[in-house]
Design brief:
2 copies of one chain form a homodimer. The first copy, chain A, is mainly α and 476 residues long. Chain A has 18 helices and no strands. Chain A folds into 2 domains: 135 residues, no CATH class; 213 residues, no CATH class. The N and C termini of chain A lie far apart (84 Å). Chains A and B meet through helix 1, helix 2, helix 3, helix 7 and helix 12 of A and helix 1, helix 2, helix 3, helix 7 and helix 12 of B. Chains A, B: One of its GO terms (molecular function) is retinol O-fatty-acyltransferase activity. Chains A, B: It comes from Eublepharis macularius.
């Protein structure tokens, strides 16, 4: 027991020497010694002590807990193992990247451009909505029939392109996805457009301003309704200029006076533009080089229903798929949307929030895609709440709607209705419940990451597999 | 510009509502809102504002910097990708683990146990050293001839087993490594033993105590030289009991009175014992299942000098190799040494320090293997410094010695002298210089990890390749 008493004494003796004894790497050594003095064999100490009564760092008895080195270890391991994967891929398949092939994804027959035509036609719906609103503003159209017209218009926006895609053969899946995406965005924008204008009319009516006088925007400017910043107010906003600014603006929620950035920052714009082009190339490259071969290799196991191999393929696919998703996120939500916003001097650049820290699935869905989230909240969730629906019901409805659009964007272009995307989205509800119920903090965060990394490739494989079976197996 | 002024005002308006609006995932949402209020479309706000002038989180303009989610991402990615690797391995090779094969690594011919014999013979050297010391203590042997005898004894410890290994054919590489390791440890221990006793005699002479009286340990106990804790003092320590306690103690530095732990902690001992057995199995399993096939696959690329494949193999080998090294570290330095120490009630459990945080290569070498580092410092580095050598010279000498022993433990058992291990150790000096010169903090730490993860498999592949070429290519 005397040893225990002895240990601290010896430590105190050594400390001064510890710092002084210049060890090879002075900088770190000095620090190291202050903490734990070097065993010292100098004949000065009583019978040449060089051991002390102490515990190993990793045994719980020593209250040690500094493992910041581990993060660096993780990063190094990740970089190295993925470097290997990529090298292996190059060796196995050679270079598969070719930009020409990309064009063929959009064009099957170089003399018919169905996707482009559809996008051009889309303008009709926008103008229809604008004119309906104009008629409504002047009061030459009743609210009732206005709502009917808008509803018809909006439904057509969704159905028409879908039918065309299903009918026309010269349209490629990729081209179809692009077209349908454009129409979906248009749908959401016009839905918001009609809502906001309706709210304006309601307020005007509440203020008791007669409908017909509304046309004279000069009068409007005069009255106190105009915000201090001096933007347009209700009927004055129903112009082509205003409409098209909204259609191209990187948002889905209409508002009469968007916040505008004071000037176009040249350097910022150029940097984003460069990113936009670079990451687009990278995405195409990664998909051609990494995704496609991996998916093709995973067809056989699927046919044979060889489960261990299916899982192996799934995990193998998860890495490139996740990487591509991350790059896509940055490319679209940061680079591209910022470029558009900068060019249009659109002020609100909040296209995403810190979803990477999300500890619940709900938090992720509320923060990774702000334009859509904003729209759902403003034009779907809150109206339902106002109508006295329960929160969970409303949230489920939102997920249902989003599930519908996911399915719409995948099934129609592939011309097969499998509901994988739909189920994938709906699966989020029980998942969200489970995570928020049982997992906290970092575990919750890890669970969210896990669901992202594993969830997507499952859906992807499902569709690709079915697509192959339909279009290639059939022919053999 | 009015917008800029407007933004903060609007924010202030929204904040209170933000918190109150019960969103689906209440817990996180509340926090989220306080930080960035939800865009609000309630007709209360002047013409239905739902956008604010603001930057994207990832653009430098927004001073955002909370990426703690990334660590979780790293961990998840690592777990998943290695799970895949392991599954792939199982599918490819099936289960290769078999414990019987392990025995064959130690025994070639079941009727001759050369390794064991050598280990038994090792006692002779220990006793020789003890008796020399006894003679020196009583003064019946001159310091001069004592030094000569010790030197001969120590040299024999290194040369004899090496010669036997090279001569006897029935000895397996693994057995040989084991034997040579035992002898190396003995060498270091006896070196320390002779040094400490020499220091004791020097001090006694300085105090002017006549040599022959030293024999009577009773007298010694009486004099003030004895530490308060009442341990033995100089010549009384030269007993078989004392000697063998030192030989089995988990340290290389001799000392007359080792710090002793008060009692054997049963639970601690059992936990460490379990770890010891479990990790040993795991190590064997991983080597058989993961290392061996990977190495065998990497022989062909080496023969063909196909560089891209060599690198691919190297990186593929790096992961299991590193994992095994980490497990080995824990198994040996934490579990095993703690078991021995607990059984012998050896007090000083500092077998390693926080090398995982090391930001310079030197710091790593000074902290991952404390018994050896202690020995080098006490019996090699400091004496050289005392003799007035420069710090860098001394450090280089230490690396040289360590390089020699690394080579000794590898080349002799494999019966081929390639100097890979030697060069590997010597390469640490420029590396250490480079890292400490150019890399700081986390970069230094990452560099150390990198050198560990990449450096080892290179050396391993070099030896294995040469061994294969020698023993298998030759026969074909």
């Amino acid at each position: 027991m005397a040893e225990r008493g002895g240990a601290p004494r010896r430590r105190r003796q050594e400390e001064p020497r510890g710092g002084g004894r210049g060890e090879p790497s002075q900088s770190r050594r000095g620090a190291g010694d202050a903490a734990q003095p070097e065993p010292d064999g100098a004949p000065a100490t009583p019978d040449f002590r060089c051991h002390r009564l102490q515990d190993s760092l990793l045994s719980s008895a020593s209250g040690y807990s500094n493992y910041r080195g581990i993060l660096n270890w993780c990063v190094v391991m990740l970089v190295l193992s993925n470097a290997r994967l990529f090298l292996e891929n190059l060796i196995k398949y050679g270079i598969l990247v070719d930009p020409i092939q990309v064009i063929s994804l959009f064009l099957k027959d170089p003399y018919s451009w169905p996707s482009l035509c559809l996008v051009i036609v889309a303008n009709v719906f926008a103008l229809a909505a604008l004119h309906t609103e104009k008629r409504l503003a002047t009061g030459s159209l009743s609210e009732r029939s206005g709502t009917v017209l808008h509803t018809i218009n909006l439904l057509t926006i969704l159905c028409f392109p879908a039918l065309v895609v299903l009918a026309v053969n010269s349209i490629t899946p990729v081209g179809a996805v692009f077209t349908l995406a454009v129409h979906t965005i248009l749908f959401l924008k016009l839905f918001s457009f009609k809502d906001v204008n309706k709210w304006c009319r309601e307020r005007r009516r509440a203020k008791g301003v007669p409908a017909h006088s509304g046309a004279a925007s000069g009068l409007q400017r005069a009255n106190g309704d105009v915000p201090p910043s001096g933007g347009v107010s209700y009927p004055a906003n129903l112009t082509y200029r205003d409409m098209y600014y909204f259609l191209f603006a990187p948002t889905l929620c209409y508002e009469l006076n968007f916040p505008r950035s004071p000037r176009i920052r040249k350097r910022f714009l150029l940097r984003r533009l460069f990113e936009m082009l670079f990451f687009l190339q990278l995405l195409v490259g990664l998909i051609q080089q990494w995704m496609v071969p991996t998916i093709q290799n995973s067809m056989k196991p699927f046919r044979d229903m060889d489960y261990s191999r299916i899982i192996e393929r799934l995990l193998k696919l998860a890495v490139p798929n996740h990487l591509i998703w991350l790059i896509f996120f940055y490319w679209f939500f940061h680079s591209s949307l910022n470029v558009i916003a900068e060019v249009m001097q659109f002020g609100d650049r909040e296209f995403y929030r810190d979803w990477w820290n999300s500890e619940t699935v709900t938090y992720f869905w509320q923060n990774w895609n702000i334009p859509v989230h904003k729209w759902c909240l403003r034009h779907f969730y809150k109206p339902m709440i106002k109508r006295g629906m329960g929160k969970w019901t409303a949230q489920t409805a939102v997920f249902l709607a989003s599930a519908f659009f996911h399915e719409y964007l995948v099934s129609v272009p592939l011309k097969m209705f499998r509901l994988w995307a739909f189920m994938g989205m709906m699966a989020q509800i029980p998942l969200a419940w489970f995570v928020s119920r049982f997992l906290r903090g970092n575990y919750g965060n890890a669970a969210v990451w896990m669901s992202l990394i594993i969830g997507q490739p499952i859906a992807v494989l499902m569709y690709v597999h079915d697509y192959y079976v339909l279009n290639y197996e059939g022919r053999q």
